Amino acid sequence: MRRRQQGAGAVFIVVILLIALLVALAVVSFNRSGNAVTDRGQTSTNLAAAAAALDQFAGASGRLPCPSNPGTSAADPGDGVESPAVPTGSCDYSLGTLPWRTLGMRRDDAFDAWGWKISYRVYSGGTGSFTQAGGASMVNCDTIQALTTRQPVDGNGLCPTAHDTYSADFIAGKGLSVTDFGTTYDGTKATGGAAYVLVSHGPSGQGAYTTSGAQQGAPKSNDEKNNLLATGPFVAKAASDSDTSATDTTHFDDVLLYRTVSDLATRANLVARDWPDDVLAGVKFDSATLSDALGHSPSSDTGQTNITFAYAAVSSLNSGTAQDISFATSGGNSGIGEVGGGNNALNGFSGEGLRIVLTQSARKFALTLNSFGRSSFFGFPYAEQVQVNCLKGLVPVDSVTKVACNSGNGLASFSITAAGDFDTVEVKALPTTFGFIDSSFTLSEFASCTATGVCTTTLATAGNTCP
Questions:
Q1: Is 272 domain-assigned?
Q2: What is the average pLDDT value for the chain, to the nearest integer?
Q3: Across the strands, what pairs with 329?
Q4: d(CA 95, CA 156)
Q5: What is the distance between the alpha carbons of residues 199 and 208, in angstroms, rounded to a whole number?
Q6: How many domains does the chain have?
Q7: Strand-pair partners of 223
Q8: Which end of the chain is more exposed for a tag (fewer CB within 10 A), N or C?
Q9: Does 421 lie in the same domain as 298?
């Protein structure tokens, strides 16, 4: 009986010990899991602080810093200073780490929770580099621009100080490729790609730099390998299971933080402005513009006596019955006129012209005519002529006659300052200066402008501009 009781007691002790062991293992597992969550949370906090410092630096300088030397050994652990120190389009250490000293941060701020240096990648080294002077700034870009004055970015990928470039043109094609939990951001997106990427290489630290400047061994995972590159493509996704070996090709424990091009501009207060425009309205009468206005490709007879564009409504103007607006191309340049007279142009003998009703009043007007020039008839020289009438609410404000100044049938551009503000312009063909020969031309482009600005069309050049 006593032996049976002793056996039962021994079993009971074993059961208690097993329960205690299971509880201990659960506590260890819970603590390990809790520590992992805490470490990732602390790393995310460190990355956010670094991003805030980068945003502030961009806001103050108009550019992003280059990465710092990540270090090579204990004797050369890296100094946390961007390299080169003078801003250029290229960086000395494209695979470098956070330039904490340049950003005014503490040395400890440049590490993740596992003691690895935070890697820093920036869009640099080519046209539109964010490390060049003004490279991150869209301040000179415009948000609203007349069609004919929209200009591309300059040779450095920046918006010129003329303020005639859209922010979308600044963003287009820029940024590092980042796939964030399945969503990819790159230069093809409206936001642009990533202006910069901050990478913690996780608890495994594969590819990361230590405090002494030594680099850990390279990872086996393709996504983690890409996160080590200068231009990616970078990947942010869920961490692999804790049981997945760091040598497994499916392993992933990196933590990323990035800013898209547009996001950086917003956070750094470097967004485009609505700059005042010298050119209030303008339309270049080419196939693309006519197609947008008509809803289909234009033929020689548009079938319309009135066509509405973004900044103006254009109608035919005739001494008799209004004719359809025509579309013609000559000498590689296109323009509009009237269907009639057999040549789809504006003809003086027929009193043909175009009326342009603007969406807002202006003081200056510019136009470029095609097939408008000087010639001779049996030794008698003559020049084509055009009359430009400016009206305010159909009340005459000014009337100017312009004469061709160049030989041939090319482009001719004119700028006119009216005696007062106007909201309607009439472009009317007149007979040539010889009188017995008619003028015949088309309107290729117009622009209306403020009183103080320079008024010209995009087709105007020094060679085709007449007084």
A1: no
A2: 90
A3: 334
A4: 23
A5: 9
A6: 2
A7: none
A8: N
A9: yes
Same domain, yes or no: 284 and 216: no
Query: Is residue 81 situated within a structural domain?
Result: yes
> Exposed, middle or buried by CB within 10 Å (0-12, 13-18, 19+), for 401?
exposed
Q: Please tell me the predicted confidence (pLDDT) of residue 163.
A: 85
311 with 191, same domain: the answer is no
Residue 427 in domain: yes
Question: pLDDT category, 109, cuts 50, 70, 90?
Answer: very high
- Residue type at 179 in one-letter notation: T
Residue range of the domain that includes 302: 279-449
The widest CA-to-CA distance across the chain, in whole angstroms, is: 145
Cβ-based neighbours of 255, under 8 Å, separated by 6 or more: 40, 43, 44, 47, 112, 199, 200, 202, 236
Residues 354, 208 within the same domain: no
Strands 353-370 and 312-317: antiparallel
| Residues 190, 330 within the same domain | no
Pair (201, 293) in one structural domain:
no
**321 exposed, middle or buried (CB, 10 Å; 0-12, 13-18, 19+)?**
exposed
pLDDT digits (tens, 9 = 90+) for 210-249: 998 899 999 999 999 999 999 999 999 999 998 999 999 9
